[in-house]
Amino acid sequence: MFGFGKKKTAVLDQRLYTPVMGQVIELEDVSDPVFAGGMMGDGFAVEPTGNEIVAPVSGEVTMVQGHAVGFKRADGLEILLHMGIDTVSLDGSPFKITVSVGDVVQGGDVIATADWAQVDAAGLPKTTMVLITNTADKLASMTMVFQEEAATNAGEEIATAKAK
User: Fold this and answer.
1) Three-class DSSP category at 134
2) What is the pTM of this model?
3) Is 130 part of a structural domain of the chain?
4) In the predicted structure, residue 5 carries a pLDDT above the cut 60
5) Cα angle value 16/74/88 (rounded, 5°)
6) Alpha-carbon distance 33 to 49, whole Å?
7) pLDDT per residue over 22-33, tens digit each?
8) Looking at residues 117-141, what average pLDDT do you find?
9) What is the mean pLDDT of residues 9-34?
10) Cβ distance 151 to 22 under 8 Å?
């Protein structure tokens, strides 16, 4: 049975990818002080203009909530994709996540869709963050390869992150 029942293993890919089409912004420019202050880890943010959400890294899905997906890369870096600010209050209704814990994805694979109109209607920011949550313990360096305030497509390489 050609591959059925076998778990794929993550290959090491040090690149980070834009999770959604939109305008890339510096993490420090995010309206939420917890994210802007780096308390959740180093990373970047996107003001989305598209509805398709893709994996920002290659790795294993470790957590799925209504508004967030966690990943672990083969080198141990842990990445959180957080869709919108304060969207936890919407109980996941704007987001249709198509991956499950244990799935192995490649950077740029489609993992969800977003109905940003619901987020707008709730008066919440759509800002989507990619955060390396174990920055202090595991991140050696992160190098951005985009121009500040650049418009990008979902799945474009935006940075490289190297583990210690």
Assistant:
1) coil
2) 0.91
3) yes
4) no
5) 60
6) 23
7) 999 999 999 999
8) 97
9) 90
10) yes
* 101 occurs within a structural domain: yes
Report the percent of the chain where pLDDT is more than 90. 86
Q: Which of 67, 73, 82, 126 is catalytic?
A: 82
Is 67 annotated in the active site? no
For strand 52-54 and strand 95-97, is the pairing parallel, antiparallel, or unpaired? unpaired
Query: Would residue 7 count as lying in a domain?
Result: no
Q: Which sign, positive or negative, has the C-alpha torsion 92, 35, 42, 126? A: positive
d(CA 123, CA 133): 27
CATH of the domain at 154: 2.70.70.10
Task: Please work out, in degrees rounded to the nearest 5, the angle formed at the alpha carbon of residue 28 by the alpha carbons of 65 and 67.
Answer: 10
In a domain, 5, yes or no: no
Q: What are the distances in angstroms from CA 60 to CA 48, 99, 134, 158?
A: 24, 10, 15, 20
Expressed as residue numbers, the domain containing 53 is 15-163
**DSSP-derived secondary structure for 13-56:** --EEE-SSSEEEEEGGGSSSHHHHTTTT-EEEEEEE--SEEE-S
**Strand 139-144, strand 95-97: pairing:** unpaired
How many domains does the chain fold into? Answer: 1
